[in-house]
Amino acid sequence: MPFDSGPRSRRPPSRARRSEIGRQTVVEGDCLAELRAMKAASVDVVITSPPYNIGVAYRSYHDRRPRAAYLAWLSEVGDAIRHVLKPDGSFFLNVGSTNADPWVALDVAGAFRDLFVLQNQIVWVKSVSVGDDTIGHFKPIISRRYLNNNHEAVFQFTHKGDVTIDRLAIGVPFKDKSNITRWGHARDRRCAGNVWFIPYQTVKSKAQKFDHPAGFPVELPARCIRLHGVADAVVLDPFCGAGSTLVAAETLGRRGIGIEIDPHYARAAIARLREIANGKAQADNPRSRTVHTGDRSRARP
């Protein structure tokens, strides 16, 4: 059922537990209830990765629901996201799949088809082989039918498909420097395209993954934030997990809100943010990879 943003739809203020660390807010609660309690058009960038419904062993969520019920629930979440997303905002959705269920990522994207316009589709490559060399990490499978699954999808949704992005904020130098003057470029920077190689860091224990079974590297949300290109952006992750989106937002100087229903994962996100606040966090720092900031500020009515 579409979310009615009129006066009668206003929910009472949330009583969920909230923790403020730096510029970030961690909300321990159900994402639908929290999204519906938020102010309309209050978020610039949504970056999230919902449960994939492929049997991931989360602590307090059963990741095996009937497909129709799962997609209907995601559609509700999408409608609530549409309510809080600003007219010129971006919603980045990361979804993976399995060899046995290769359609799930497209099915999930389809759940948002009537709510948003798909502006960009990005392939997140976690491992790639070039010649005889392999770079990055992947989870190998033993099969006579399937290849190792080394990528996931990232969908950028917007309200109308007309949001200006800062392509050069995540750009790369020209390989052929003569192209700079030949095509009238202002600097040695070009669009890197829609295939992003972002490997996981090497870990040897669950603790190094913050005890979360399906987190993404900090560089993934950091790249989405930079691509959206608003310097004072408010960032939201309604499936916050162990807080990678908030870590990226804090490191890049943005204000962030993370909603997480599991108290254990919420505590992990808080602990990571406190390490940054105390100057202890060094690994997986998105700022270390930033070459061109290119942030833009938009006039607000």
Helix content: 10-25%
Percent of residues in beta strands = 15-25%
CATH class: Alpha Beta
How many domains would you count in the coordinates? 1
Q: What spatial order of strands do you see in the largest sheet?
A: 1-2-11-10-3-4-8-5-9
The mean pLDDT is: 84
- Described by the principal axes of the CA atoms, the overall outline is globular
The number of distinct β-strands equals 11
Task: Output the number of helix runs.
Answer: 7
The CATH topology comes to: Rossmann fold
- The appropriate CATH architecture is 3-Layer(aba) Sandwich
Low-confidence stretches: 1-10, 285-301
User: What gyration radius follows from the Cα positions, in whole Å?
Assistant: 19 Å
CATH homologous group name = Vaccinia Virus protein VP39
One letter per element, helices H and strands E, the order comes to: EEHEHEHEEEEHEHEHEH
Structural class: alpha/beta
Distance between the termini: 30 Å
Report on the biggest sheet.
Answer: 9 strands, mixed
Q: What does this protein structure show overall?
A:
This protein is an alpha/beta fold. The protein has a single domain, classed as Vaccinia Virus protein VP39 (Rossmann fold). Helices cover 23% and strands 22% of the residues. A nine-stranded mixed β-sheet has the order 1-2-11-10-3-4-8-5-9. It has a two-stranded antiparallel ribbon with strand order 6-7. Helix 1 packs parallel to helix 2, helix 5 packs across helix 6 and helix 6 packs parallel to helix 7. It is globular and about 60 Å long. The two termini are 30 Å apart.
